[in-house]
Structure formats: C-alpha cells, structure tokens
C-alpha cells in the first residue's frame, strides 16, 4: 500500500507553477505540445485508477476520450451548445457508457478483462465509423470551437487555452488523488493485492471495482471534452485501438499506481513522438527501444525508477 | 525526502531541454517548403512515393527556385488527421515554412483545410482529393493541384455504360469520403447512361480481409467496381480471384485500385482490370517517358500518380515563385500566383485550374496488361481536359449535395 506522501502535492504544485511561468516564453507549437501532453496526461491518470490501483489492464480506454470528444463535436457544431453544456454531457455520457461497459467487463480479470475491454472499445470505434449521420464517419467533425468562458482572454490563442488546460489538469489530479488516498482508494489497492482476502474482510469487491471503473470513464470523458476543443476536430481515430494502446503505454512508461507517473509518461510520449520524428522517420524504432528499456530496466516506470534510485535501492540495477 | 519534488523538477527539466530555444524568425534565407506525408503506418509506401516525387524535381533543379535556395521539411502524418494537424502547426509556427504541400486521405484534407485558412499559409494539395474543397466549401489558402475524387469517374461511368456495355454493376469501396465520392461520381454518369448500380458495399479504411464482403457480391451482376486504397489495394485483387469471381465478373476500379504503387506487388490476378485516373505510367508522351525513365533510374521503381503529382508540385511551386520574383514572403501575392499556374506539359498531360480552383486535365481509361514481365496500365481511351464538373454546368452540378454513402441513393438495390 502506498504510504501517504503529503509532499507530493507540494511538488506537483511547484511543477504546475513552473509550467505556468515557463509558458509565456515558449513558441506556440511548443505550447501546443504541452497542452496536448496535459490533456493526454488527464486521460492516462484516469486509466491509472483502473490499471495501477485496481490492477486491471483496459484496452478500451480511448472510448471515453472519443465519447467526450464526440459529445463536444456533435453538440457544439450542430446544436450550438456552449462549453459548460458540452462539458457536462461529455462527462455524463462517458460515465454512463462506462457504467454499462463495467457491467460486462468486470465479470472478468486479467487477460479476459483485456479482451472484453478491447471488444467494447471496438464497438465504440465501429459506431464512430459507421453511424455516419451522427459522427460524419471517417471524415470526422471539424470546426469544433474553443470554449467561450466569458473571460477577457480569447481561448482561440495558445496561451490562455494552455492555462485553462493546466487548471483542468490540476483539478483532475487533485480529484483523482483524493480518490486514491481515501479509504475507498486504499480498498482498491487491497483488491489489487488480494481479492479474496478483501472479500473475506467483508468488502463489496465488485462494487468497488465498478465505481472505480465508472470514475475512470468519467475523467476520461473530461479529457475527451478538452481534446476536442484543443484539436477543433473529432474523428474515429480518437477512439481507435492504437490510441488505447498509447494510453496504456503512457501509464506503463511513467509508472502505474503513482498517478503522477502516467502524466509524466504522457508528456514523454508526446515529446518523443513529435520531436524525435523531426530528426528521423525511424522514430518508431526509438520509441520501441524506449518501451523495451522501460520494461527491462525500469518495470515500475520512470517514477518507480526515480524513486528506487533516490532510495539508493538496488532495484535500479537489478536489470 | 523530497523524492517527488525531484520527479517534478525532472519533468520540468525534460520539458525545457526538449523545447529548447525558440527559433529566430526567418530572414530572407531559403524558401522553406513544409511537406506532409504518411511515413509510418499502413500508407507509408505512398508517403515515400510522394516525397520521392518532390525530391526528384528539387534534385533536378539543384534545390534552387528563382535564385533562392530551397529547404524541404518533411513531417510524418501517420495518415491520421489529428497528427497531421499537429504537424501542420509545427511546420508553420516552429519551422516558419513559406508554403505547405502534400497530405494523404480525403478526411485528412477536410481536417487540415480550416487550419490552413486560420494559419494563412498557402498549401498545395497534390493528392488529397476531397470533392467539396473546390466545390461547396472552397478554402482560400488551399490550392489543389491534384484532382477531385469523382473527377475521373464521371467519364468512367459513361465509358462503362456505353463502351463496355455493362448494365448491372456492384460497387465495393473503402468507407470514407474518397470512397463515397468515387462511387458517387461513377454511379451518377453510369446510371444517366442507362446502367444500374445494384449493390453498394463499404469496407473500413485499411481493411485487408475482404472475405465477408466478397461473399455478399451479387452474382447476377455484369461487373464489379472496386475502389481500394493503399494497403487494401494490395490484398483485394488476389482475394477477388480466390473467391472465384475473377473469371465471372470483370473487375473495374477507381484509379487507386490498380495504381502503379500497387501493380509491382500484384500478380496476374490484376490483369484485365480497367480503371480511370489522371495519370498512367504507361502514357506514351515524351514528357512522361522521360519522367518514368529518370524516376526508375533514381528510385528503382515505377512512379505512381502520387509520385507524378508531387513531382509536378515542384514545378508548380517553381512557376509561382518565379511569377512573384522570389518574394514568397508576400503570402497573398504568392497565393494568387499559385492559383494562376498553368503547366502545358506535365508528365500526366496539360494541367490548369478551373474557376473553382481544381485542375482541368486529361482522364485516362486504363487496362492492366503485362509487358516484358511487368504490369502496366495501358491507356485505352483518353478524355481530354476534363473538369471536376465534367459535362455539367458548375451551378447546376453544385445544386446536388456532395457525394456520400447515401447519395446518389441506390435505386436498383
């Protein structure tokens, strides 16, 4: 069970402030990459609740990104809905779908859970692709507006939007951190470690899993809402298997069960993808090597490795 | 103590190191061309053909246009709209390119267009053929020097009905804008000339197993019109033959089904396939013969239409840059010049833009034949100077909605 670390909040606060201070000197493209990383960071953190704290690997998490994104896409471009409406609908829709999927998926564990979430994810992708009258199919929905919040700064430009996303990220982090540090969160870890023991102790194991799954979906939907406003565009690619896999890799790379790890993983992958590909078209090879190196040398991800290293633990050199 | 602090600081350091120092604004240095193409993923080979085409023109012209050096920055879109959008932004805001070109897939074209307008940098679309970008939703900063998806199929539908004399045709196409528009164009003129489309099947982008679709095909039809793209085009003809359909129902196709990009990888199963496109590597003109010979020498493969349009893009840029005396910094003037370019002798034939900004060019009806052990698209008929509206008046044509899955409706299904 992870011990409480009150300093984490402080550290994250410092990191957020540092990013906020850094933002004005960045070019708009660099700012765009950071914005992207933060949104995907929210998504990766939401998956971490299921993967890291509950020990269930989901291959359908892009569905919630897609659901949130399509809620914004459809409502804002066809019905002229404002940001707050789309935000609420996006989160509720993702949570509702997670509630249905949870009923099906949580009957299984391990690789079977992986397979079922994969299949459910494909259902969402299939709908995005084939329900053309609603989603415009593969063409996607373009022209999704940036949120109008009644603030004096126009969100169409990079900097104010970045700050908005930074605030959203901080909120999502604080919320998820409250969840994992609550008795509920500790129960999740207990279930991960030994389901039967928790059951014997009188915990309603299934209900805990179910609630965590729905929360993860809802936060995923939140990320989706932001994702659509960031891109100004929604397409079935947002719900694809490759996107789900990418999120899974972000969590694994950063360090599952750490919450801050997946956010770092998201940042690392976004930067690797966009900056390495500038120098070589073989960037996938480099990305692949990074994953392999992580699995071999730092199975607990970047955060795990750093933690072990600062502890002077021999685990770092275990190889 | 403070381990998490270290993590957080590490994250910040990574960011700072990665983003580095902001680049200085471009002076009167080289002309920077930003090029978008899929370099990884299912369409990576097409991306290669595209960059080869443009690089070849630049090589031939010593990377100089109107006395200014040229710098080419290629970015990988992975064939995905989101990634293409990010890379577009990178090219404009980080690399400060003067002009953009490239892109693959109609839906990527639709996704990029509003962003290009917002960034106000001219972009050439040599490949992305989404109809509406030069029809009902024109985009100021996009100059299409390629084609519209339905353009070759307007004459083709007429050809199939009148010359080949088929009455009933089944269509099977990739399920996205390009597929809908290709089938739509074919169906419109085919049915206006007495034909009937009796079944329409749709397979998702990058489908490789067609068994479930092939088993549905109505055996009482006269022919099958297949529109395949990239990786699907590699697999379809073989599976069509294995399903026992080849001898029974002649295979017609959109141009990309039998593109030179796939032909070298296909076997005899492709022979006899008839399709329509703006280009064939077998074209018997001096300009094309020279192009094919040089291209094969350089890249040891036959150029595809992707190579040809991107090669011609080099020349297109050259004409426009010369027209503004190298002053590409004046974007409005440069854009205007790009729209005025006319190329009388491109490898694919004469090309110039119509009033709506889409090339008027020859459409070639091609048949796959084997010559000296290689498959070629022999040109069996040429429709000269075809516009995106074919024989229709633009105003009349634009009254109908853009072709999609359900338009034109399948009246004879």
Characterization of this structure:
The complex is a heterodimer of chains A (319) and B (413). Chain A is mainly α and 319 residues long. Chain A has 14 helices and two strands, in the order ααααααβααααβαααα. The model of chain A is unreliable at 315-319 (pLDDT under 50). A two-stranded antiparallel sheet of chain A has the order 1-2. Chain A has helices spanning 6-22, 28-51, 62-78, 83-105, 110-130, 132-135, 158-181, 183-193, 195-200, 205-231, 241-254, 260-279, 283-297, 301-311; strands at residues 141-142, 233-234. Chain B is of the alpha/beta class. Chain B has two domains: 31-148 and 286-357, Rossmann fold, CATH 3.40.50; 153-277 and 362-399, Rossmann fold (3-Layer(aba) Sandwich), CATH 3.40.50.2300. Chain B is 38% helix and 22% strand. Chain B is built from twelve helices and 15 strands. Chain B has helices at 3-19, 44-60, 81-94, 106-119, 153-164, 177-192, 211-214, 230-242, 286-299, 305-323, 331-340, 394-399; strands at residues 31-37, 64-65, 68-76, 99-102, 123-125, 142-144, 168-174, 196-203, 223-227, 251-254, 274-277, 342-346, 349-353, 359-371, 374-386. In chain B, the strands form two sheets. In chain B, strands 7, 8, 9, 10, 11, 12, 13, 14 and 15 form a nine-stranded mixed beta sheet that branches. The longest helix of chain B has 19 residues, at 305-323. Chain B is globular. Chains A and B meet through α1, α2, α12 and α14 of A and α1, β3, α3 and α4 of B.
């Amino acid at each position: 069970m992870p011990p409480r670390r009150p300093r984490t909040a402080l550290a994250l606060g410092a990191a957020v402030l540092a990013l906020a201070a850094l933002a004005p000197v960045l070019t708009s493209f660099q700012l765009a990459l950071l914005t992207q990383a933060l949104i995907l960071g929210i998504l990766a953190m939401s998956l971490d609740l299921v993967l890291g704290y509950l020990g269930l690997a989901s291959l359908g998490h892009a569905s919630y990104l897609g659901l949130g994104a399509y809620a914004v896409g459809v409502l804002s471009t066809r019905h002229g809905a404002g940001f707050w409406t789309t935000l609420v609908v996006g989160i509720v829709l993702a949570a509702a779908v997670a509630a249905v999927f949870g009923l099906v998926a949580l009957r299984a564990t391990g690789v079977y859970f992986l397979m079922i979430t994969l299949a459910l994810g494909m259902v969402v992708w299939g709908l995005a692709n084939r329900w053309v009258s609603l989603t415009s199919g593969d063409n996607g929905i373009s022209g999704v507006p940036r949120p109008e919040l009644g603030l004096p700064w126009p969100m169409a430009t990079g900097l104010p939007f970045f700050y908005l996303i930074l605030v959203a990220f901080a909120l999502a982090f604080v919320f998820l951190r409250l969840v994992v540090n609550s008795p509920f969160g500790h129960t999740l870890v207990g279930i991960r470690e030994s389901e039967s023991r928790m059951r014997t102790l009188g915990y309603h194991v299934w209900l805990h899993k179910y609630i965590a799954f729905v929360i993860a979906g809802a936060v995923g939907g939140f990320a989706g809402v932001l994702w659509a406003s960031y891109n100004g565009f929604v397409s079935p690619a947002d719900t694809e298997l490759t996107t789900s896999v990418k999120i899974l890799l972000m969590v694994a790379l950063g360090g599952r069960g750490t919450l801050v790890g997946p956010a770092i993983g998201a940042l690392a992958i976004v930067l690797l993808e966009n900056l390495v590909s500038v120098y070589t078209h073989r960037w996938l090879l480099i990305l692949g090597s990074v994953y392999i190196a992580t699995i071999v040398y730092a199975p607990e991800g970047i955060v795990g490795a750093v933690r072990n290293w600062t502890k002077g633990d021999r685990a770092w050199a275990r190889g | 103590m403070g381990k998490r602090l270290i993590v957080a600081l590490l994250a910040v350091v990574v960011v700072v190191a990665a983003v580095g120092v902001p680049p200085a604004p471009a002076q009167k240095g080289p002309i920077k061309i930003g090029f978008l193409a899929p370099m990884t993923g299912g369409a990576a080979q097409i991306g290669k053909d595209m960059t080869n085409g443009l690089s070849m023109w630049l090589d031939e012209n010593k990377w100089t246009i109107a006395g200014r050096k040229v710098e080419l920055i290629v970015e990988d879109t992975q064939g995905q709209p989101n990634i293409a959008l990010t890379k577009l932004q990178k090219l404009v805001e980080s690399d400060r390119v003067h002009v953009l070109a490239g892109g693959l897939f109609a839906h990527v074209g639709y996704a990029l267009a509003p962003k290009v307008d917002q960034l106000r940098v001219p972009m050439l679309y040599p490949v992305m053929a989404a109809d509406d970008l030069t029809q009902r939703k024109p985009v100021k900063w996009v100059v299409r020097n390629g084609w519209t998806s339905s353009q070759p199929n307007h004459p083709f539908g007429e050809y199939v009905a009148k010359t080949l004399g088929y009455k009933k045709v089944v269509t099977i196409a990739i399920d996205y804008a390009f597929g809908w528009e290709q089938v739509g164009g074919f169906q419109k003129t085919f049915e206006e000339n007495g034909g009937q489309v009796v079944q329409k099947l749709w397979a998702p982008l990058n489908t490789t197993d067609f068994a479930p679709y092939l088993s549905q095909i109505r055996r009482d039809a006269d022919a099958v019109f297949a529109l395949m793209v990239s990786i699907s085009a590699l697999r379809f003809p073989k599976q069509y033959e294995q399903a026992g359909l080849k001898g029974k129902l002649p295979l017609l196709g959109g141009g990309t089904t039998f593109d030179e990009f796939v032909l070298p990888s296909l076997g005899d199963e492709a022979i006899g396939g008839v399709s329509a496109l703006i280009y064939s590597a077998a074209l018997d003109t001096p300009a094309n013969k020279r192009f094919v010979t040089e291209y094969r020498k350089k890249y040891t493969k036959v150029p595809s239409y992707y190579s040809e349009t991107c090669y011609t893009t080099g020349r297109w840029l050259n004409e426009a840059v010369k027209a503004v005396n190298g002053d590409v910094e004046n974007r409005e003037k440069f854009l205007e010049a790009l729209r005025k370019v006319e190329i009388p002798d491109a490898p694919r034939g004469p090309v110039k833009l119509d009033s709506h900004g889409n090339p008027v060019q020859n459409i070639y009806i091609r048949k796959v034949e084997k010559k000296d052990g290689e498959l070629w698209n022999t040109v069996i008929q040429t429709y000269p100077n075809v516009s995106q509206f074919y024989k229709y008046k633009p105003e009349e044509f634009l009254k109908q909605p853009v072709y999609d899955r359900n338009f034109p409706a399948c009246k004879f299904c």
